[in-house]
Structures are given as structure tokens and as C-alpha cells.
Design goal:
The chain is mainly alpha-helical and about 400 residues long. The chain is built from 16 helices and 2 strands. Strands 1-2 form a two-stranded antiparallel sheet.
């Protein structure tokens, strides 16, 4: 007979190792190669119904429900970890310690772009000009898989995990901005003026905090929804809606004088964490369907830009920042930054999304998507690098930043 403890242990294993996400990715690849990528795409893009929101028609598909609705809650949990890390006693406190990973974000975008153009010129041949259009693909980091790998490589409580999380969220925000600006949907052009709606959501969240509202769900269904609408109408991806709201959710209850485990901020993760972790199977299922036979020059350009450009760019910018006084977070040194850079090279599902936009209708798209898919090989590479550099050490026993 299975005990409650055994059930809890099983669920924790599923969550810590992101088994649902891995199963979803594998299932998507298998399905796409059995029925064909076209048939796979027809299923996930099947319109269930449509509606109009502030003048914009929205076609509700299985893919849309997962990427535009479900992933909002995933990014919300990521935001909780970042906000918590910036509180007193956190790895990124004082907030000035967040500057170094944000510098890493810049390196994690510029490095892959530079390597992408170099590799395209070297192996692109007659298709170099066409391949160059996909320069935005390797700027992305698959935050879900990178988070999984980071927790295994560093240890779940290691400060490098929050370092990578902040870097990845900012990285994906830039990536989504690149899509909106350089690969726009002609039917839904970018309209920045609508970001004022998102700003209004942030203002409402601030008012709720000042009013000492302790129920986390109130922030989600009011400020969160408003933020989501603003991003959607602006032509940006609404998955980041809660990233703008979570900094205003109280990190302690009214009248409390310390950051408790049961704060409204922590309560959101407590209640949303398990459904989100289990639901990642659908994220993998809706995003990773690629036929593995589509090898081409774009495959190696995308893969090389991720594997080489991410670690080089992140390592260079973070190292430079540390040298000029913008120190690594407490408990981290250059070896942790390098390993985090390797983990960040996992583009996968987010890179697949960018590839779909960059090469929409192009014969290059399948090869580029395969390059993004193959970035999953970063996982074993990161394990080897982490082991070689001995990064899996408890934070309180690590040397301070140098």
C-alpha cells in the first residue's frame, strides 16, 4: 500500500527532475516523426473557437492555450524566485547584485548573434543570406529546461539557480521583443502604446499592496489580467504578464516583521507550483514537435551559435562586470558563471518558437528548428562541465566572489 510520504516523494521526484516536461518534449518529437510535422501542426493549431478583445481577434487553439495562458503562471513562479532572491538575505540582495546577471543577459544575446553570423558566413554557402534572417533564434533560452538542468547541476538551493533564472527571464523578454520588432506578425503589428495598459496593471498591483491586500489571487485576477491584456494588444507575448506584477505581491503578511514561508508571495508558488510543474508536459507537447530528418546548414549554424555563443557571451560580460566592481551574487565565482552560461545554451522550445517566426513559409525552417531541438545536448554537457568545475557545493561553503 502506497503511503502519503511515498506519494509525496514520487511527486517531488517528478517536479525536481521536470519529468512531465521531458515526457512532453519526447512525445512531441515522436508524434511529429510518426504523423509528420504538418499533421502535428494542424492538431496543435486547430481553432477551437475565436473571440475579439479590444479590437483584436484571437483564435483559441491548444497551442495558444498553453503558450499564452498556461505559461503565464510558469513565468509567475520564476518571478517569485527572482523577487525572493532580491529580498533581505537573498542571493541577489542588495538589488545591485542583480546587475551582473543582467549584464550576462546582454552577453547571452550578443554572443550568439555574433557567432551565428560567423558560422552562417562559414557554412551557409549559397543560402547564407537566407540563413542570416534567423539571427534571433539563438538569443533565446528555454527557461523551463534550463531551470531543470540548473537545479540538478548546481543543487536546488544554489545561488547560481536564481542567477540563471533572472538571466533567462530577461533573455526571453529580449527574445520576445526581437520577435515583435524583427519578425512581426503582419496581421498584428506592434503597438507600444498598449503597454500603458500593462503599466496600469502594475499601478493597480502597487495600490493593492499599499492597501495591504494579502490574498495573492487578487493580484492575479486583477493586475495580472490587465498586464496580460496590455502585452497582448501591444503585440508582445503575454506569457510575461505576471513578471510585471509579482514584485508588488507582499513578501510578508500584514503585521509580520519577517519574510515568512507562508507569505502571499510564497503562497502563490505553493498553490500554483504543482499544477504548473505537471502541466509542463503540455508545453513540451505543444512546442517540441520537429522532424529529425531535416538536417541542413541552418541546423549547425543555430546549434553552434547556442553552444558557443551563449557561454562565451555570458562569461565575457559577467566577468567584465565583476572586474569593474559589479560583483557576482554571493556564493558565486567565475566557474559558476561559465557553467550557467553552458546551461543557458539550451534554446529548445523558445528557440523553436523564434525559428517558426523567423523562417515562416521558408524551406530553411525545418533545418533551423532541428538545430534548436538539438540544443538539448546541452544537458549532459552541463553536467560534465559542472562536475569538472566542482560547482555543486553548498552556498554557505563556497568562496566569495573574486
Amino acid at each position: 500500500m502506497t503511503t502519503t510520504t511515498e506519494k509525496r516523494s514520487f511527486m517531488e521526484t517528478l517536479r525536481v527532475f521536470s519529468i512531465p516536461l521531458i515526457v512532453g518534449v519526447i512525445a512531441a518529437v515522436v508524434l511529429a516523426n510518426i504523423v509528420g510535422e504538418a499533421a502535428y501542426t494542424n492538431v496543435i493549431e486547430h481553432v477551437l473557437f475565436s473571440f475579439t478583445l479590444f479590437g483584436r481577434e484571437i483564435a483559441v487553439t491548444p497551442h495558444w492555450l498553453i503558450n499564452d495562458i498556461f505559461m503565464v503562471f510558469f513565468f509567475g513562479i520564476a518571478a517569485v524566485h527572482i523577487v525572493t532572491a532580491m529580498l533581505p538575505g537573498g542571493d541577489l540582495n542588495p538589488p545591485s547584485k542583480a546587475i551582473n546577471p543582467l549584464l550576462g543577459t546582454i552577453g547571452g544575446v550578443l554572443g550568439p548573434v555574433l557567432v551565428y553570423f560567423v558560422l552562417s558566413a562559414m557554412i551557409g554557402g549559397d543560402h547564407t543570406a537566407d540563413i542570416n534572417r534567423g539571427w534571433g533564434i539563438p538569443t533565446a533560452t528555454d527557461i523551463a529546461l534550463a531551470w531543470l538542468v540548473a537545479r540538478v547541476v548546481f543543487g536546488e538551493q544554489h545561488p547560481a539557480v536564481n542567477f540563471l533564472l533572472l538571466l533567462a527571464v530577461a533573455d526571453d523578454a529580449i527574445g520576445l521583443g526581437i520577435i515583435a520588432i524583427f519578425y512581426p506578425d503582419p496581421n498584428h503589428p506592434v503597438e507600444p502604446i498598449w503597454l500603458l495598459i500593462t503599466a496600469g496593471g502594475m499601478a493597480l498591483a502597487y495600490v493593492l499592496r499599499r492597501a495591504k491586500v494579502d490574498q495573492w489571487w487578487v493580484y492575479i485576477v486583477t493586475a495580472g489580467v490587465i498586464s496580460w491584456i496590455g502585452l497582448l494588444r501591444a503585440g508582445l507575448h503575454p506569457a510575461l504578464a505576471l513578471v510585471f506584477v509579482m514584485p508588488f505581491v507582499p513578501s510578508l503578511y500584514q503585521g509580520s516583521k519577517k519574510h515568512e514561508a507562508g507569505s502571499p508571495l510564497a503562497d502563490y508558488e505553493h498553490y500554483a507550483g504543482l499544477p504548473v510543474d505537471l502541466g509542463l508536459i503540455f508545453f513540451g507537447l505543444m512546442n517540441a514537435g520537429v522532424e529529425v530528418g531535416s538536417v541542413g546548414a541552418a541546423t549547425w549554424v543555430v546549434l553552434g551559435a547556442l553552444l558557443i555563443g551563449k557561454p562565451l557571451g555570458i562569461g565575457a560580460m559577467c566577468g567584465l562586470g565583476n572586474l569593474i566592481g559589479l560583483k557576482y551574487p554571493t556564493g558565486m565565482s567565475f566557474r559558476h558563471v561559465v557553467t550557467a552560461g553552458v546551461v543557458a545554451a539550451m534554446g529548445l522550445t523558445v528557440a523553436l518558437f523564434v525559428a517558426g517566426q523567423a523562417f515562416a513559409g521558408s524551406h530553411i525552417q525545418p533545418a533551423a528548428k532541428l538545430g534548436a531541438l538539438l540544443s538539448v545536448i546541452v544537458a549532459p554537457i552541463a553536467f560534465v562541465v559542472g562536475k569538472a568545475l566542482n560547482v555543486k557545493v553548498l552556498a554557505d561553503t563556497q568562496p566569495k566572489s573574486k
